[in-house]
């Protein structure tokens, strides 16, 4: 089964991860811009980060036969540094038209402060101006309230709800999201957020319409193979293959493809691996023979 | 800034970084008499988890506070934090309630709570009277929830009882409901975050 992981922070992962993901059937992925575990102190750090998402990381993925797309945005945590936030928001338009940028994200709430709301509103407006969908992170703390508040902000700004993917849902938040026309993302984590068994229960209860699953793997305890693992668990729980296919391919492709920034023809086949290629004179090879495996 | 002043500043930053070379990194072994002296000099502060380098760095900041003007002190102290590694930042956060004009460093203290480095979060959230004294309700509540989320004992949050509020109770009860819905355990000390009214409600469930 072809798999699209619509949320995975590959910058934090190794080449072993890329190989395992390709072997498990992942053909394409979206890497959302997020925070790096500790606060950046200057806007220049974001320039280099965005450039690496669009440059080296996309190239690295291609060397393992995986199509890499990204979302660009100012995350909620760093929205609380007013000077930094203003400078980064001013940078965004420069990036939003670039090839491979398929949405604005991750944006949303963390502590649910006014500064976070201001940054969220501005980026929802930018999504309207640049004709992009948005990927919204929901907070770890006070999650249900944060999700409801997120939906209120989306409605106030007036971005069409079908352009909004609200992520990291659980049993408590999902019913609120499904009442809207927003898409509902679920991040499958080893210890927190959602797991495969609970996901199978949710799919059987709520169906697959506007439902999306992802690994959200990053620099913490996480697993870039969570989507393929969830497929096995859902099969074992009697979810039909056609429904699984919707979750792991059709839905993310439809969501990110809706404003034409994700070229569906482009991802229908796994890209050919050519490890003689270089990116600004850098290769993923470290002196070894060129052998590409799938 | 004159060359001499720049040199002095660089020397201070270097001393702040190098403190453990002079003080070691062991926990302070305070005598009963030293504890009593500290309790009257710095009411509300707890030194049980202070190490030698924490103390050395606190002394550097307090000496600077005596010698420099208020603005220069603030800029320099923030410089020690912003260019500090995690351990330097932990020392800084522990010393924060002892500094003159501590309320001026509120944004640094709130930012510090966003860290994913748990010992660093504990330096501001635990055995530290700063949040109780200066955090607005929203940030104080978020601190308590983050402690809960990370399995940190709520008893370590100084002055929690005095800062209980209905919004915090609601957040804690929502968190308990979320954990139950996910088939997960609820922190045993969650009731420490509940007001008396909310505690009764939780018991009635």
Question: Which key phrases capture this entry?
Answer:
heterodimer; A: 294 residues; TIM Barrel; 11 helices; 42% helix; globular; B: 205 residues; mainly alpha
Question: Quick summary of this structure?
Answer:
The complex is a heterodimer of chains A (294) and B (205). Chain A is of the alpha/beta class.
Amino-to-carboxy terminus distance of chain B: 64 Å
Give the overall shape of chain A, derived from the CA principal axes: globular
Low-confidence stretches of chain A: none
Helix content of chain B: 55-70%
Q: Tell me the strand order in the biggest sheet of chain A.
A: 1-2-3-4-5-6-7-8
User: How many angstroms does the end-to-end distance of chain A come to?
Assistant: 14 Å
Rounded to the nearest angstrom, the radius of gyration of chain B is 19 Å
Structural class of chain A: alpha/beta
User: Main β-sheet of chain B, in a few words?
Assistant: none
Low-pLDDT ranges of chain B:
none
Order of helix and strand elements from N to C terminus of chain B? HHHHHHHHHHH
Task: Provide the succession of SSEs of chain A.
Answer: EHEHHEHEHEHEHEHEHHH
Kindly provide the radius of gyration of chain A, computed on alpha-carbon positions and rounded to a whole number of angstroms.
18 Å
**Number of helical stretches of at least 4 residues of chain B:** 11
Helices of chain A, by number, come to 11
CATH superfamily of chain A: Metal-dependent hydrolases
Sheet of most strands of chain A: 8 strands, parallel
Structural class of chain B: mainly alpha
What amount of the residues of chain A lies in strands? 5-15%
Mean pLDDT of chain B: 93
Describe the protein:
The complex is a heterodimer of chains A (294) and B (205). Chain A has 294 residues and is α/β, with parallel strands linked by helices. Chain A has a single domain, classed as TIM Barrel, CATH 3.20.20.140. In chain A, 42% of the residues lie in helices and 14% in strands. The longest helix of chain A has 17 residues, at 114-130. Chain B is an all-alpha fold and 205 residues long. Chain B has a domain at 1-100. Chain B has eleven helices and no strands. In chain B, helix 3 crosses helix 5 (86-95) and helix 9 (137-149) runs parallel beside helix 10. The model of chain B has no long low-confidence stretch (mean pLDDT 93). The A-B interface holds A 37-39, 41, 77, 80-81, 110-113, 140-145, 170-172, 194, 198, 220 and B 82, 110-111, 114-117, 138-139, 141-142, 145-146, 149, 171, 174-175, 177-178, 181-183.
């Amino acid at each position: 089964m072809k798999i699209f992981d619509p949320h995975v922070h590959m910058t934090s992962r190794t080449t072993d991860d890329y190989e395992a993901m390709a072997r498990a059937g992942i053909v394409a992925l979206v890497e959302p811009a997020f925070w790096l575990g500790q606060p950046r102190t200057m806007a220049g750090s974001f320039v280099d980060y965005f450039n690496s998402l669009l440059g080296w990381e996309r190239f690295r993925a291609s060397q393992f036969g995986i199509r890499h797309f990204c979302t660009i945005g100012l995350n909620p945590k760093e929205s609380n540094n007013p000077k930094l936030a203003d400078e980064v928001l001013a940078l965004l338009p420069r990036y939003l038209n670039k090839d491979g940028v398929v949405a604005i994200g991750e944006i949303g709430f963390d502590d649910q402060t006014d500064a976070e709301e201001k940054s969220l509103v501005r980026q929802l407006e930018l999504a309207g101006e640049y004709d992009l969908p948005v990927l919204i992170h929901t907070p770890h703390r006070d999650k249900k309230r944060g999700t409801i508040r997120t939906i209120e902000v989306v409605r106030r700004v007036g971005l069409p709800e079908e352009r909004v993917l609200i992520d990291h849902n659980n049993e408590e938040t999902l019913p609120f999201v499904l009442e809207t026309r927003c898409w509902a993302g679920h991040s499958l984590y080893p210890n927190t957020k959602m797991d495969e068994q609970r996901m199978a229960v949710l799919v059987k209860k709520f169906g697959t319409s506007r439902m999306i699953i992802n690994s959200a793997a990053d620099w913490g305890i996480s697993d870039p193979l969570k989507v393929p693992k969830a497929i096995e668990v859902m099969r074992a729980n009697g979810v039909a293959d056609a429904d699984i296919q919707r979750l792991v391919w059709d839905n993310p492709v439809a969501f990110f493809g809706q404003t034409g920034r994700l070229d569906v023809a482009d991802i229908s086949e796994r890209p050919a691996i050519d490890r003689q290629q270089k990116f600004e004179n850098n290769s993923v090879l470290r002196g070894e023979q060129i052998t590409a495996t799938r | 800034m004159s060359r001499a002043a720049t040199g002095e500043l660089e020397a201070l930053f270097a001393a702040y970084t190098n403190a453990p070379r002079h003080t070691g990194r062991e926990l302070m072994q305070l005598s009963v008499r030293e504890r009593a002296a500290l309790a009257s000099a710095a009411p509300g502060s707890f030194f049980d988890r202070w190490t030698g380098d924490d103390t050395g760095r606190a002394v550097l900041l307090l000496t600077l506070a005596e010698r420099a003007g208020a603005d220069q002190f603030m800029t320099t102290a923030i410089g020690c934090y912003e260019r500090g590694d995690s351990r330097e930042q932990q020392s800084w956060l522990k010393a924060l309630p002892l500094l003159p004009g501590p309320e001026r460093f509120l944004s640094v203290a709130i930012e510090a709570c966003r860290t994913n480095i748990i010992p660093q979060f504990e330096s501001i959230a635990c055995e530290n009277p700063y949040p109780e004294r200066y955090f607005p309700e929203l940030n104080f509540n978020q601190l308590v929830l983050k402690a809960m989320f990370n399995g940190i004992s709520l008893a370590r949050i100084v002055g929690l009882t005095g800062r209980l509020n209905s919004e915090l109770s609601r957040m804690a009860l929502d968190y308990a409901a979320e954990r139950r819905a996910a088939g997960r355990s609820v922190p045993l000390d969650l009731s420490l975050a509940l007001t008396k009214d909310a505690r009764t409600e939780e018991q009635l469930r």
